[in-house]
Amino acid sequence: MITEDIRKTIVAELPNILKTDKKVQDVAIRLLRRQFADKKRTEDRIDRILDELAAERERQDKRWEELRIEREKRWAEQEKKWEEQKLKWEEQNKKWWENQKAINQMLEEIKALSRKHDSTLGALGARWGLRSEQSFRNALKGILEDTSNLEVVNVAEFDDEGVVFGRPDQVELDIIIRNGLLYICEIKSSMSKADMIIFKRKADFYQRRHNREATKLIVISPMVDPKAMVTAKEYGIEVYSYIEDVEFE
Fold first, then answer.
1. Is the dihedral of CA 212, 217, 219, 220 positive or negative?
2. Where along the chain do its domains lie?
3. Which CATH number fits domain 132-245: 3.40.1350.10, 3.30.750.24, 1.10.3300.10, 3.40.1190.20?
């Protein structure tokens, strides 16, 4: 065994020997080469590791790109489904509103027919004395105000000259003012020729007294005598059987 003194001597002298003795250098290199890789092997190993890392990075980048493409594809498919659902909903909503509109229109038509039916029965009732003329007029005035969003104003003025009835008397008529236009109305359960003439006189009386010309003279009555229709045409009076048919400018 190497003694401690010899070991110390080798450690102290070895560096100088390695510097000057070629054989000792070769022996040392051979011994150390077993423990440590040379420069080329080390560089080759590093290059191999770097290549493996680059290849792994490339595989990861490729995988990420595939995932990105797949995600965008799924997103596009989902957006397409959402758009299809949106179109279906809009179509269903449109159909629902169309159906609702048609139903509402049918209901309005039914209401209009019902009102016409009621006004006809009311006119018959007034004519046969089952209800008063005033109640019939009030009912039709209410319908007119509800359906046309208009206010029908009853006017009562005294004709002291007797131009309407041939003697001084109170004159009553209904007027409507819409958008600055004046409409003079007569609402009765039935109209004879004499009634039509009286209405024309009342309208003329009102226009002269207030110095204002009416846009239209309107008669609303479910039952109008044919002779009264001829008189109305001569006077330019518009005649309507039902409230719903009245036209305003």
1. negative
2. 4-36, 37-131, 132-245
3. 3.40.1350.10
Q: Taking Cα atoms as reference points, which of 217, 216, 218, 220 lies closest to residue 249? A: 216
pLDDT over 90 (residue 243): no
Q: In the structure encoding, which two tokens stand for residue 111, read together?
A: 């209401």
For the ranges 31-40, 126-135, 139-148, 223-232, the maximum mean pLDDT occurs at 223-232
| Phi, psi for 185 (deg, rounded to 5) | -120, 155
How many Å apart are CA 186 and CA 220, to the nearest integer?
Answer: 6
For residue 147, which of 248, 245, 244 has the smallest C-alpha distance?
A: 244
Higher-confidence residue of 200 and 45: namely 200
Angle at 27 between CA 25 and CA 33, to 5 degrees: 100
Q: How far apart are CA 84 and CA 78, in angstroms?
A: 10
pLDDT tens digits, one per residue of 158-185: 999 999 999 999 999 988 888 888 999 8
Q: Which of 2-11, 57-66, 96-105, 220-229 has the lowest mean pLDDT?
A: 2-11
Helices (H) and strands (E) in the chain, counts: 6, 7
2 three-state secondary structure: coil
Sequence-distant (6+) residues with CB within 8 A of 65 are: none
Q: How far apart are CA 249 and CA 1, in angstroms?
A: 134
Query: With b meaning 16 or more CB within 10 Å and e meaning fewer, what string describes 152-172?
Result: beeeeeebeeeebeeeeeebe
Rounded to two decimals, the pTM is: 0.49
